[in-house]
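Holo model, adenosine-5'-diphosphate. Inputs:
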Amino acid sequence: MLNLVLFGPPGAGKGTQAEFLVKSYDLVHLSTGDLLRSELAAETELGLEAKKFMEKGELVPDAVVIGMIKNKIASVTDAKGFIFDGFPRTVDQAEALDEVLNENNIPISGMLSLEVEKEELIKRLLNRGKDSGRADDQDESVIENRIKTYHEKTSPLINYYKGQNKHHGIQGMGTIEDIAGRLKAVVDSL
Ligand code: ADP
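Output:
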């Protein structure tokens, strides 16, 4: 199985590139952001709890997100592989993911880390906010908080995966096609 962690700060292009990877390698896409937004839209208890964190640009508590992703993994049978997008976002989440994947003998093949400058991230997120209507993309202070949270809680995962020899840094500036090409070159080498 090909199991990929697609990693990077908010606005790095994970969702866009995940679509390309899903098509090219026939993978199951698991985006915690998308899963949380559908819980929110359905006004479930989990969604209403998550909303309080998402609208401030804070991380949803690990227990909530880990439970949600475990359920999803368990519900999929017959996958060629998974692409994890926006997950893990903390070291505790990465450890929980390793645990469940190792139990099933399907370890992470590689972590693809999209590298984009902060100024460009803010520009992309504000632009997305205009079309998508996502409230967390329309408020610059929420965007700043998400980027700060990324540096504090999420970027330590770069060293976590470096420690497992699974980290691959990918230049995330340029056209969508250029970046997709760089990702493909790395995935084909795994
Ligand atoms: P982006 O990468 O642009 O921030 P996402 O759709 O991945 O967008 O996430 C939106 C919000 O959902 C995050 O700001 C956070 O509140 C919450 N979220 C998503 N994934 C996680 C996760 N793995 N752990 C905790 N919170 C998460």
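The chain has a mean pLDDT of 96. The chain has nine helices and five strands.
Archived with the compound record.
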